[in-house]
Amino acid sequence: MAANPWVVLGVSLVGAIGTMMGVMMTPPENTILKHAFWLGFNACQAATLSPLFFFSPAILSRAALYTCGVVGSLSYVGATAKNDTYLYWGGPLLAGVTVVALSSLAPMALPLGVRSLAVTQAISLYGGLAVFSGFVLYDTQKILHNARLVERGLLARDPMKESIGLELDMINIFIRLVQILSMQQKK
């Protein structure tokens, strides 16, 4: 029995948002429920990413390697920074992700023959890669900041809640790298 891909995508996205909110709202002391929400979140992310298996394994492995390099190096930079400069990037990064989201939706609103569709695709891919790379720096410093608050006893230790931001950054970087590499292979 074949499922409609739009239904699968919609259900997995709604499930991912719901389970992510469950991870965020569940107190760390309730480990079984928190782990169940986290498992559900990762299962929904896997369902959302499953269409990528139709791409060439060479593209997927290169994109995975590049993603590890980008996330690893930017996390290192964020973790070893002398001050909390990247924590103040939240506002500009939110504006950037809004531009990326609107450029992704632009082909639905613009007429079919408009030449600017290539521009909106470039903004979505390369701008998204830059924005989510910035989010890696921001989320890494946010994790370190919250760890300092945990050491002082001002915040409860919650590694699952802290990891979701970096996981989403990594997924978004990976998806964009797969798209960029597949476009280069077609040329």
Strand percentage lies at under 5%
Briefly note the structural class of the backbone. Answer: mainly alpha
As residue ranges, the low-confidence spans are: none
- Rounded mean pLDDT score: 90
Distance between the termini: 36 Å
Structure, described:
This protein starts with a helix and ends with a helix. The chain is mainly alpha-helical and 187 residues long. It has two domains: 1-54; 56-186. The protein is globular. 21% of the residues are buried. It is built from six helices and no strands. Helices cover 79% and strands 0% of the residues. Pfam families: Bax1-I (PF01027). The chain crosses the membrane at residues 6-24, 60-79, 86-106, 118-138. Belongs to the BI1 family.
Brief overview:
This protein is mainly α and 187 residues long. The chain is built from six helices and no strands. Its main location: membrane.
Describe this protein with a few key phrases:
single chain; 187 residues; mainly alpha; 2 domains; globular; Bax_inhibitor_1-related; transmembrane helix; membrane; transmembrane; Growth hormone-inducible transmembrane protein
